[in-house]
Write a structure and sequence with these properties.
By secondary structure, the chain is α/β, with parallel strands linked by helices. The protein has 20 helices and 17 strands. 43% of the residues lie in helices and 16% in strands. An eight-stranded parallel beta sheet has the order 10-9-8-7-6-3-12-11. The longest helix is centred in the middle third of the chain and has 17 residues. Bound molecules: iron/sulfur cluster. Iron/sulfur cluster (SF4) binds next to helix 2 and helix 3.
Length: 482
């Protein structure tokens, strides 16, 4: 049977039931409903956390809400990455939590300049899409030299030049230990990769001593992987583990890889096997040791493997290629897959500047549906406008739907004019609303006391429309009539 969240009633029975409102909800039942849909955290209820008398209930709730795939935290002093923490096998059953983290490698045989250049490229990779900044998450440092001193120096160099969390890759416990002495956990909390059938005891001891998460690698042998997970968790007492079943390409290997990841996640979320219930690590980087020939072909397979593993069910990927055409599909696909299918993608409401607007620049009103916002702002930039963009909170709905659903209203526009202090920024009192919102123009004028101009139906026409309509005569006419 798949994992099921507790019902709101089960949760409510364990809450303080004082209806104090400190969680931001009107009462404990409303908070229980949010917890049951995993839209709130237990920590949002202060009495439950702070008062000794609720300790037992808190612990029971923690165990009821525990995901079948453990959440493991990797961190640097400046950034935290959570991997795993998955509840469901299919996104439509609820939504996926903790997007697949993507790490790109450097190794200790690279010279200092190459390492710094790669680290800066990894850290600086950014693509803006529907108002979101899509970025990489971690740096994987590989020991190629197998020399503890050299590896420790490389790790120190990367840590000095990056704010990203680290994955330390070596099967030699002495090499990993040297690097951990440099990083000094818990200041940093890197993932160490990896325990194998040959070194598991020594690696487990290092992980325990430094209290860092440990990956187990068993390419091609799932029985051994699960058995090592059992030994390390039950006999050695390690809680934060991750599993690498191997990324194999070539005849039979590709099918194995997809089946291995799917089987592990199925066992964790449907059969609730606790020894499969750890984050999964995919290593598309391994194509570089399995393939030869044109590097572009190898990169293509690395990209293909990464995309498949984001879908099936990697929680962390380790990659080598830094080219945009390899990484861009990964961050875009990850973004799509990890959005909540129950909620439209929204950007924060507020006032944005397009170009260099002044006190007489037009104020263009739009919704906070991410796609609408990104189309309007990119069309306005393309037209080289200097304008104010007033983004109203339509709960992530597009213009026509939000007008029909009473989410694009005069009151909403008035609210955002006030909170953005628009009256201090512009001298005129004119708003340009989308053509599709024409029917609420009167409501907006009544609620805001601003004059409304109905703009074009399509934001691609904004430039031409403003050229024709945003004239001093028109402004005077509208302001004179106000
Ligand atoms: S903070 Fe806790 S006790 Fe207070 S209303 Fe919310 S759930 Fe109930």
């Amino acid at each position: 049977m798949p994992w099921k969240p507790p019902t709101p009633i089960e949760i409510y029975q364990l809450l303080p039931k004082t209806n104090c409102g400190k969680c931001g909800e009107a009462n404990c039942m409303a908070f229980a409903i949010r917890l049951a849909s995993l839209d709130a955290k237990l920590e949002d209820c202060p009495p439950l956390i702070e008062e000794e008398k609720y300790k037992g209930s808190y612990e029971k709730l923690q165990s009821l809400l525990l995901p079948p795939v453990r959440e493991v935290v990797i961190k640097s002093p400046k950034k935290v990455v959570k991997i795993g923490g998955k509840y469901v096998l299919f996104r439509h059953e609820m939504r996926y939590h903790n997007p697949t983290a993507i790490a790109v490698d450097v190794d200790d045989n690279m010279d200092r300049d190459t390492i710094i250049k790669r680290v800066k490229m990894i850290e600086g990779f950014e693509y803006e899409y529907v108002g979101q900044k899509l970025k990489l998450d971690a740096i994987a440092i590989r020991s190629v030299s197998n020399d503890p001193k050299k590896f420790a120096q490389t790790v120190a160099l990367v840590a000095e030049n990056s704010s990203l969390p680290l994955v330390l890759c070596s099967t030699n416990p002495a090499v990993i230990e040297a690097a951990l002495n440099v990083l000094n956990p818990p200041h940093h909390r890197p993932l160490i990769y990896a325990a194998t059938k040959d070194n598991w005891r020594e690696m487990a001891e290092v992980a325990k001593r430094f209290d860092v998460p440990l990956a187990i690698a068993s390419p091609g042998d799932l029985n051994l992987l699960v058995s090592l997970a059992k030994t390390l968790s039950e006999d050695m007492g390690l809680k934060d583990l991750a599993l690498d079943p191997g990324c194999i390409v070539g005849p039979g290997g590709f099918a194995y890889t997809i089946k291995a990841f799917s089987w592990l996640r199925f066992k964790a979320t449907y059969d609730l096997w606790k020894h499969a219930g750890f984050p999964l690590i995919g290593t598309p980087i391994s194509v570089w040791t399995q393939m030869s020939g044109d590097p572009k072909d190898v990169m293509l397979w690395e990209a293909v493997l990464a995309t498949i593993l984001i879908t099936r069910y990697a929680d962390l990927l380790i990659m080598h290629s830094l080219d945009g055409w390899v990484l861009l599909p990964q961050v875009m696909w990850r973004f799509q897959l990890y959005t909540d299918p129950r909620k439209p993608v929204a950007v924060p409401a507020g006032l944005r500047e397009i170009g260099k607007p002044n006190e007489m620049s037009p104020v263009i009103v739009t919704t906070n549906y991410a796609l609408t916002y990104s189309l309007v702002s990119s069309d306005a930039e393309k037209a080289k406008l200097n304008a104010w963009l007033l983004v109203i909170d339509t709960e992530g709905l597009a213009v026509d739907v939000s007008v029909a659903g009473r989410k694009f209203t005069g009151d909403k526009v008035a609210e955002i004019i006030k909170s953005a202090e628009l009256e201090k920024k512009v001298k005129h009192r004119i708003l340009i609303i989308p053509g599709k919102a024409a029917r609420v123009s009167g409501d907006i004028e009544d609620a805001t006391k601003w004059r409304v101009m109905v703009g074009p139906m399509d934001s691609s026409e904004l430039g031409k429309w403003l050229e024709k309509n945003w004239t001093s005569e028109k402004i005077k006419e509208l302001m004179g009539g106000s």
